Hints:
Number of helices: 6
Helix content: 25-40%
CATH class: Alpha Beta
Number of strands: 7
Mean pLDDT: 87
Structural class: alpha/beta
Shape: globular
Radius of gyration: 15 Å
CATH topology: Glutaredoxin
Strand content: 15-25%
Distance between the termini: 33 Å
Oligomer: single chain
Amino acid sequence: MLTRRSFVASAAATVGAGAAITSLPGLAQSERKRAEPPLPTLGSRLALTPVRLLDDSVFQPAAAEGQVLVLYWWASWCPFCAVQSPHMEKLWQAQRGRGLQMLALSIDTRREAAQSYMQKKGYTFPAGMVTPAVARVLPKPRGLPVTLVRGRDGTVIWAESGEMFPEDVEGLAKFL
């Protein structure tokens, strides 16, 4: 049975994977799709790396040690991200005072596009770019948007590919 959630997830994975992988030069379409890993397994360790943020500050992995961290891969051109990002901002505003850490990773090819989008929308959650150095440690899983939650112990406790419903984004607060 096709539910709204499975339809949205399938569509997001199809659109996100197809659009994101076009930036990998020298690979055939089928090879590009294989280049993006699946979602990490729940309970697996999730390493972090320093990330230069769009506001020119730097996300330091030490800031997330012992904290709940939401990782969110997105793009300024992604229609599913456009629907989910306001809910991510709302989560960030409501829960950062309770210790929530967030790192949004844009797959845009131009830093200026991501910066402009964040500014235009008024988003304040910490966001950086997926650079080759970042991708070596935090490769973007298939689909777009992609949301992971890294628990206080450094393991993956939630993983979702595709647009999340507002109540599901809000529900990420349960991990705090």
